[in-house]
């Protein structure tokens, strides 16, 4: 596909804040954005040139959407793989394609794939019954985190367990669905690498950020991440391997646990722009949203040089209702336009530029 000229239409499956920020970046580069999602007036719909309200598996809507778009991408990793395959079967260009989407949707397949391409993870065991769970808990030394294989996000569908806990109740808690038990990783910190791969195979990786979670939800991301150059180089090369091996075109994020001795273990990856990269538009010469749009439009990637030290803080629930001037003069605020500030809901984020870096 030739680089898309300005005025072309980029279609995005998914209507959340990631679609909204991708859409804004696309508009700035001269593209029109069409959003397809099932919700009534989601955040991305309200900045789109055209909003298609339809189920992700509504083939007649997908066909009309495809006819209107020059390239299609997604902002949500639970889009049915069959919808992407359908779009490809009718001749659409979908970037990234189905491969990275499919692997990221199932925690077991994801970890097996990561291991197969030489990316280490913590230990894990598949679980499909309370009996399996008892065996797995034993194998993993008596403690672990039970996670559903599919549809979990932000700590949902997860239960921490140790020997002696009621395993039948834990399995019922996650809905008696196929799951994995992960060994508890005694990490020193968590980092993520947000990387972009262009259609010609070139890659650019943002500096890793150090991420803090509370209750499974990201609270802050800080760059630099405070690790030594060799560890950072290793993290980047793991993300690069992943992007290459999935034939990914666009942005992806690899979340890593860092052990005391600098060992890196992959937690999971997202085949899309990522919350831990929300500091990049303010911190780097090119941000993750623009970079993704460049990649899917067949443009060359932008430079990702980081020009500020930054701290990104998520605004959850009513935190986003604070007056804009209460964040301090150095804060850059992004709000997602969600009308209902439910507790814990990601409503926006603030980026603080803590110091400026010399451009070498
Ligand atoms: P996840 O949804 O799998 O990314 O999990 C959310 C957060 O829970 C992670 O970012 C970690 O802070 C914590 N967590 C998840 N899995 C593990 C694990 N196996 N060991 C230790 N902490 C974990």
Describe this structure in words.
It is a single chain. The protein has 360 residues and is of the alpha+beta class. Helix content is 26%, strand content 29%. The protein contains ten helices and 17 strands. The protein has helices at residues 17-28, 59-68, 81-89, 98-104, 107-116, 130-139, 167-173, 229-245, 280-283, 288-296; strands spanning 9-13, 32-37, 50-53, 71-74, 124-127, 143-148, 158-162, 179-182, 189-197, 203-205, 209-214, 217-223, 250-258, 264-270, 308-316, 331-335, 346-356. Strands 9, 10, 11, 12, 13, 14, 15, 16 and 17 form a nine-stranded antiparallel sheet that branches. Strand 11 (209-214) and strand 12 (217-223) form a beta hairpin. The mean pLDDT is 96. Adenosine monophosphate binds at residues 122, 145, 155, 182, 184-185, 190, 213, 216, 255, 267-268.
Q: Keywords for this structure?
A:
binds adenosine monophosphate; 10 helices; alpha+beta; Dna Ligase, domain 1; 360 residues; 4-stranded parallel beta sheet; Rossmann fold; D-amino Acid Aminotransferase, Chain A, domain 1
The topology string of helices and strands comes to EHEEHEHHHEHEEHEEEEEHEEHHEEE
Tally of discrete structural domains: 3
Q: What is the global morphology?
A: globular
Q: What Rg do the Cα atoms give?
A: 20 Å
**CATH architectural type of the largest domain:** 2-Layer Sandwich
Cα separation of the termini = 34 Å
Average predicted confidence as pLDDT: 96
Can you identify the CATH class of the largest domain?
Alpha Beta
Bound molecules: adenosine monophosphate
Q: How much β-strand is present in the residues?
A: 25-35%
* DSSP summary, beta strand count: 17
User: Structural class of the helices, strands and pairings?
Assistant: alpha+beta
CATH superfamily of the largest domain: ATP-grasp fold, B domain
Please describe the biggest sheet, giving its number of strands, its sense, and whether it closes into a barrel.
Answer: 9 strands, antiparallel
How much helix is in the residues? 25-40%
């Amino acid at each position: 596909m030739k680089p898309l000229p300005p005025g072309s239409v980029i279609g995005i499956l998914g209507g959340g804040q990631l679609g909204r920020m991708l859409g804004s970046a696309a508009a700035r580069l001269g593209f029109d954005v069409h959003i397809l999602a099932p919700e009534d007036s989601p955040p991305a719909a309200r900045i789109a040139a055209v909003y298609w309200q339809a189920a992700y598996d509504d083939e007649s809507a997908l066909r009309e959407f495809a006819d209107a778009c020059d390239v299609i991408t997604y902002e949500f990793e639970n889009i049915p793989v069959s919808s992407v395959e359908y779009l490809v079967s009718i001749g659409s260009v979908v970037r990234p394609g189905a491969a990275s989407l499919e692997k990221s949707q199932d925690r077991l397949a994801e970890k097996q794939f990561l291991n197969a391409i030489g990316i280490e993870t913590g230990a894990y065991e598949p679980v499909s019954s309370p009996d399996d769970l008892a065996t797995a808990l034993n194998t993993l030394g008596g403690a672990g985190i039970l996670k559903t294989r599919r549809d979990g996000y932000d700590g949902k569908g997860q239960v921490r367990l140790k020997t002696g806990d009621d395993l039948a109740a834990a399995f019922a808690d996650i809905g008696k669905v196929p799951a994995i038990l992960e060994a508890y990783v005694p990490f020193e910190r968590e980092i993520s690498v947000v990387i972009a791969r262009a259609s010609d195979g070139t890659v650019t990786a943002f500096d890793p950020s150090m991420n803090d979670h509370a209750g499974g939800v990201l609270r802050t991301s800080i760059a630099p991440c405070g690790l030594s150059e060799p560890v950072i180089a290793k993290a980047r090369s793991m993300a690069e391997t992943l992007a290459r091996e999935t034939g990914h075109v666009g942005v992806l994020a690899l979340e890593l646990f860092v052990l005391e001795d600098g060992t890196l273990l992959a937690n999971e990856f997202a085949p899309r722009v990522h919350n831990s990269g929300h500091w990049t538009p303010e911190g780097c010469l090119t941000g993750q949203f623009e970079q993704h749009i460049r990649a899917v439009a067949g443009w060359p990637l932008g430079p990702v040089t980081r020009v500020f030290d930054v701290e990104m803080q998520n605004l959850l629930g009513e935190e986003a209702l604070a007056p804009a001037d209460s964040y301090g003069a150095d804060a850059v605020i992004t709000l997602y336009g969600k009308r209902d500030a439910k507790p814990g809901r990601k409503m926006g984020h603030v980026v603080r530029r803590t110091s400026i870096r010399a451009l070498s």
